[in-house]
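Good morning C.,

I know you're traveling, so I'll keep this short. The sequence:
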Amino acid sequence: MHHIDVRLEKDIFDVNNRIAEKNAACFKAHGIRAIDLLGAIGSGKTALIERIVPLLSERGLKSAAIAGDVFGDDDYKRIKALGIPVENANTGKECHLDAHLVEHASEHLPLDLIDVLFIENVGNMVCPTDFLLGAEIRVVIVSSTEGDDVVNKHPMMFRGCDIGIINKVDLAPLVGADLNRMEADMHRYNPGMQVFRTNLKTGEGLSDVVTAFLG
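The tokens, ready to paste straight into the viewer:
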């Protein structure tokens, strides 16, 4: 007879959520809007940060970031080149950031000098879903090159996010992706989700995203 202990999973989520609540309280106390960026590898998470940080700076807002990856510092280096505080958070074998990693990384950031904190999650459309980090906003970004069925294949990711971004809209005709289907699927799984279409190479659609991020 097989014995399955489901309490272990419950305990992991409970511990994570308690730390996430602590992170959220910390960010709020410092007047920081924390944004959790989720999406697959190559969807455009780092490119979004690169594009939006200068726009926030024009509004007098100071940004910082936590770059989450299983291994390496490629995204960290790209974000660091923007001249903002950034911490690299490698997860090792884990395919998602957790609240403890974010807590540890944030301890090395100048929290009193930050208005907007970007938390770039590990490139994965499944694992990050259940692990809250303490962010005020959760954003999922997908690209047309992932196929117009990408949303339908990952419903839980979209149900748990506040904002959806469809990136690389210029490539949709080349890969045969139906952008309307992608947006309709997002609203099917999350009727209240704000959805935006972007081309991060040109900056198309970014002004509306910035407005949504700032609430």
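Safe travels,
E.
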